[in-house]
Design goal:
Blueprint: E1 2-3, E2 5-7, E3 20-21, H1 27-42, E4 46-48, E5 62-64, E6 67-73, E7 83-89, H2 91-107, H3 113-130, H4 137-158, H5 164-171, E8 172-177, E9 187-193, H6 226-234, H7 241-249, E10 267-271, E11 286-290, H8 291-299, H9 304-309
Antiparallel strand pairs: 1-3, 2-4, 5-6, 6-7, 8-9, 10-11
Helix pairs in contact: 2-3, 2-4, 6-7
């Protein structure tokens, strides 16, 4: 069952907190849970939003936070249970993402190629990283094809009096990827949207799929096993490599309040010597703080003389 609450106290309209899922093998139990939740919410002036609440079977699938979760029947040789759970980007998420790319390309019809690449790159990387722990390879390839078509039309529109071959040679090139071992043959990637200075647009399909490791059945964020949970946070797909290094260096502890980072805590990188005073973005000049600790630290006035005597 998918749920979302709404209320109208004070005439402020609806509010929808984080979506919630209830799962049980018996549909009667789910229906009874819905009745109990409705009664409890009514006592505090809230209700389950009908358009956001539905009961569905896992074989029909459902969308959750941009993912489509569905079970498929498979042969007994593929799964002992007779079905397989597939999680992939939802159709709504894919549509919204492509529309965002289209909007960005249309806004930069007359902009230089390097500017367009600079606008699209963070969008592509962020979206791909979000879905890098599920079955996304097929979706990535599809998005590369759609984006390739859109960028080709972008190029043809800019040069209506030139041939398609001329446009393709101007905006598309071949990128030679470095190999891990010197004796391996170099990987050649054709049809890369790139400038002459080799500033290129990343491809969706190049994103590495890193399977999500399930939490052990006996583990809990409140069980006190800080090493286990800090290690999981370091490997989170949305955790940047630098934040992961800082988390490991600080042994999972906030550099400001000294409390341990918990699963779900908002983290912010802090520059010890502010960049406005000449500080750089290196690990040595960075530390990891809770988001609210970062706000507190920046709320204080910075004494530059103190930084000169004790920068770290």
């Amino acid at each position: 069952m998918e749920t979302c609450t709404s209320g109208s106290e004070g005439g402020k309209g609806q509010r929808c907190p984080r979506p919630t899922r209830l799962m049980h093998k018996n549909p009667t139990v789910v229906e009874e849970c819905q009745r109990i939740i409705n009664k409890w919410l009514n006592d505090i002036g809230l209700e389950l939003k009908p358009s956001k609440t539905k009961i569905t079977h896992t074989f029909d699938g459902f969308d959750f936070l941009g993912f489509n979760i569905r079970q498929y029947n498979v042969g007994k040789h593929q799964s002992k249970q007779g079905f397989k759970t597939i999680i992939k980007p939802s159709k709504k998420s894919i549509k919204e993402y492509y529309e965002r790319l289209e909007t960005e390309i249309n806004k930069h019809r007359a902009a230089p190629q390097a500017t367009l690449i600079g606008k699209l790159t963070p969008i592509i990387r962020g979206w791909c990283n979000y879905y890098s722990s599920v079955c996304s390879k097929e979706t990535y390839s599809k998005m590369d094809y759609l984006l390739w078509n859109k960028l080709q039309r972008w190029g043809y529109r800019r040069h209506p009096n030139k041939s398609k071959t001329w446009v393709n040679k101007k905006y598309w090139g071949t990128k030679v990827e470095k190999t891990k071992e010197p004796w391996d043959a170099p990987k050649i990637d054709n049809w890369v949207f790139m400038t002459k200075e080799e500033n290129y647009l990343p491809k969706h399909a190049k994103t590495k799929i890193v399977r999500h490791v399930k939490v052990k059945d006996t583990r809990s964020p409140f069980d006190g096993n800080l090493i286990y949970w800090n290690t999981r946070m370091q490997k989170h797909p949305e955790m940047t490599s630098q934040k992961g290094r800082l988390l490991k260096r600080q042994k999972g502890v906030c550099a400001h309040c000294g409390l341990t980072f918990r699963d779900g805590d908002l983290m912010e990188k802090h520059h010890i010597i502010p960049r406005s005073l000449g500080g750089n973005d290196s690990d040595k000049n960075s530390e990891l703080l809770h988001l609210h600790c970062h706000d507190i630290k920046h709320g204080k006035k910075i004494d530059s003389s103190e930084l000169d005597t004790n920068p770290f």
